[in-house]
Description:
The chain is globular and about 75 Å long. The protein is 26% helix and 26% strand. It is built from twelve helices and 24 strands.
Amino acid sequence: MTDQNVVVDDEVEVLIVGGGPVGLTARALLERWGIRVLVVERHPELSPFPRSRLVNVRSMEIFRGLALDEKITGAGFAPEFGTIRFRETLLSPDFALAKWVGVNSPVPESPALGVVTSQDRLEPHLLAAAKAPVRFGTELVDLTEEADGVVALLDDREQDRRTRVRARYLLAADGANSTVRGLLGIGTAGPGKIADITTVVFDADLDHWCARQPAGVYFLSYGSFIPLYPEGGWAWLGPTPEGAEHADWPDFLSRTLGTGPDLPLHVLRVQHWEMKALVAERFGHGRILLTGDAAHAVPVTGGLGMNAGIADVHNLCWKLAGVLQGWAAPSLLDSYEKERHPVAHRTLGQAVANAELLFQVQARRREQLQSGAAASEQIELPWSERYFAQLGLVLGNAYDSDAVLTDGAAPHEPSEPGTDYVPSTRPGHRMPHLWLAPDHSTLDILGEWFTLLTPDPAAWERHTTGPWPLHIETLPEEHTAVCELGPHGALLVRPDGHVAARWHDGPPGDSVLSEALKAITGT
C-alpha cells in the first residue's frame, strides 16, 4: 500500500542511488536540464580503486557535450596506451598485439577520442561537473512507492541517523548487487556470477620492461597487469588464487610478473570481488528506474560495462527532464527500457564473446609452444584489426520505440553484435559525426533541446511552435547527400543524439514538426 502521509526530511525531483561514474554522469546531465537532484552513495568517499579502465569513444562524445573531455583526457594516458599486449610474463616478448579502436588513434566516425584512464581519476571530474549535493556514507535501506513519487529511507552512517527523502523519480545506479533492484523484486537473466576476481594495487619500478612498449593492459598467462596512472602505479587483475586470505602478495606478484624476488614491490590495496554477467528482467517499476550495473552487469573484457551505463543515463535523463518540466508525458519513460534493454543483451553477448576470444588467444599460444615454436613467434589474433570489432556496438545501436518515428525504412541493426559501424541518418540511429567547421561537429550542436538539422532553415522556422525545446541548425549542402536529404529536407535529432525523425524533402504540412514532437514525447 502507498502512504501519502509519510513525513519526509527533504524533497527533490530525482534521487540518484549510487555515486559511481553512472550516477555522477546522470547528476551532471540532469543538472544541465535544471532538475533538482540528490545523490546518495553508501561508500564514505569516491572509489579509491582503479576498476573501470576504458572510456570509449561514445562516452567521450557524451563527456564532450558536458565540456569534460579535455579534463578526462588530461588525467588519462597518452593514445599509445590504447594498445593491448599479450605475453607469458611481463618480461617476455609480445606474442600478439592489438589496438583499442578509437583510443590508440582517432576514427573518422567520431570527433572524440577514447581514453585509457582509471575510475579513481575519472570520478573526481564527474563529481566536479555539477553542484547538486552528494551524500557519501549514506545507504538506501527501504523505499515506498507513492502515486506521484517515491519515498526513500536513508541510513546516514556518519551521522548515525536515518532520514526520509521524497523524490518524483528514483534512478538506481547502485551496482550489480543493487539494493533497489532487490527491493523491487526484479529478477535477472544470464549466468550471474562467473568468477571470483582479485585486484592487487601495488607500486614497482617496471619501466625497464614497459617504458618502451606501453600498453593499457598486458594480458599474461595468469591474469593481467595494468598501469594505473601516467605517473606510476600498477594493478594485477585475475582469478582469485587459492589461499588468497593468507597470500604473500609481493611474492605472488614477483612470480606472476616474472621479475623474481629482487624487484621491490609495495602492495597498497587488495580487493576481492565477483565478476557477474546478468541483465535485469525489467529496467524499473513505476517511478523507479535501473541504470548501469543495476540494470546489466557484464564481464570486464572489452571495457563495455561502465560505458553502457553512461549511455543508459544519456538516454534516460532528457526523458526525465521532459516529464518533470511538462513537455513530455510520463509514457515517454517507457521508451527507456524498450530502447536500452536490447542493447544490454547485445552488450552482455559481446562481453562474453570477448572473453572467449581471449581464451582462444591463450589456447593458440599454448598449442604454439607445445609444437616447439620459439617464444618470440607471433600468433594470429582471432579478430579484426579493430579490437574485438565492437565499434558497431559502441556507435551503431539503433533504437526502435515510440520515441522514434520511422520514415518507411526499419531501423538498421548491426548484423551481429559488435560488427563494424555504418553511419546512418535513419530514425533511431545516432546522428553521424560530420564536420561543420574545424573542431565543430554535428554532435557539438546538440544539447538540452531537440535539434532540427536542415539545409533550408527558412522553410521550417514557421513550424516551431509548441512547448518543446528546439534549435534549428543549418546543414551544409555538402552533407545533404550523406544524410539522404533533399534541398529542403530535415533531420529531427533528440537530445541524446539519436535521430527521431527524417523528412527527405520539405515540410509536408504546416503542423508536421509539432505533430512529430507530440508523437515522440507522448503529449
